[in-house]
Structure to design on (302 residues):
């Protein structure tokens, strides 16, 4: 490992990420290294880590290299691997733009949940500090049938029925009377049946704010409560649409929802073909170098 590792820090609606550019996949990012970097007190701090690798250089992405030059090797803050991160892919695109790999407009990003199409809107300020929003085509939601379709999530004495929605990664969406009912969310909310989520789940708590306008809190698998979750916001929009009797793929009428998260606002459209688009901000806030010796010492002492 070289003595310095370049990194950046970015966020999308305050879902924050350590970004490690590593085009040739030369850096050994073990789960412990990721957790150390994402540590908010002894590390850089982040809900997750975006390992930026050329698709051709990563065994999990090689097959997508013809469609997408770059692979988002996404890791949760605890070091675990996740299939997809909606805010992450928008911040990932912003990094590629800042680094000069891509310009405004359309690009494709490979993820473990397949190739995602991204659109970087024109910047609205010359400094780029008020950079244009980034839209990502998130694919279609999958709502499992059968006993795993409806689940129950609990916090303390409260239990709610929740909708099982897969956005490439797993979600349980519960409609609550008040977001405070979710409590401090220091631990993952228990759910039943366990068979619904063999690999754990991201849990969203949702309240109505107005017509096609909701607000949510989220407990993310591998990260705890975060200020936003892009895949979660999409799952919430789909679960809310179905609750409201809207099913764009069945009726041919698109549905757009405003989803407020503690860290901002996301706009989610489920198109007439069932494809979901998410739009929101994506910001790079800092860049620097990690002292590789510090990282090695931290890993040895753990
Ligand atoms: N914050 C992300 C989701 C990150 C992955 C998630 N914690 C999981 O384990 O599935 C988003 O913006 O979608």
């Amino acid at each position: 490992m070289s003595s310095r590792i370049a990194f950046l820090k970015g966020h999308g609606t305050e879902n924050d990420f350590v970004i490690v550019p590593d085009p040739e996949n030369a850096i050994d990012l073990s789960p412990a290294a990721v957790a150390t970097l994402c540590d908010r007190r002894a590390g850089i701090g982040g809900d997750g880590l975006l390992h930026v690798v050329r698709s051709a250089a990563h065994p999990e992405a090689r097959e997508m290299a013809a469609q997408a030059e770059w692979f988002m090797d996404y890791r949760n803050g605890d070091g675990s691997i996740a299939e997809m991160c909606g805010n992450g892919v928008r911040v990932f695109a912003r990094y590629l733009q800042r680094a000069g790999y891509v310009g405004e407009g359309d690009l494709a990003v490979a993820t473990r949940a397949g190739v995602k199409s991204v659109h970087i809107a024109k910047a609205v300020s010359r400094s780029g500090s008020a950079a244009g929003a980034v839209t990502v085509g998130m694919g279609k939601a999958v709502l499992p049938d059968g006993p795993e379709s409806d689940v129950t999530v609990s916090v303390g004495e409260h239990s709610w029925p929740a909708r099982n929605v897969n956005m490439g990664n797993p979600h349980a969406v519960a409609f609550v009377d008040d977001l405070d009912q979710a409590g401090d969310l220091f631990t993952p909310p228990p759910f039943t049946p366990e068979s619904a989520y063999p690999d754990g789940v991201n849990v969203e708590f949702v309240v109505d704010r107005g017509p096609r306008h909701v607000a949510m809190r989220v407990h993310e698998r591998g990260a705890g409560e975060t200020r936003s979750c892009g895949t979660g916001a999409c799952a919430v929009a789909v679960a809310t649409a179905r609750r409201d009797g809207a099913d764009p793929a069945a009726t041919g009428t698109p549905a757009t929802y405003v989803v407020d998260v503690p860290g901002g606002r996301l706009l989610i459209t489920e198109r007439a073909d069932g494809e979901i688009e998410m739009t929101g901000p994506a910001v790079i806030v800092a860049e620097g170098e990690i002292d590789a010796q510090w990282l090695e010492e931290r890993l040895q002492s753990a």
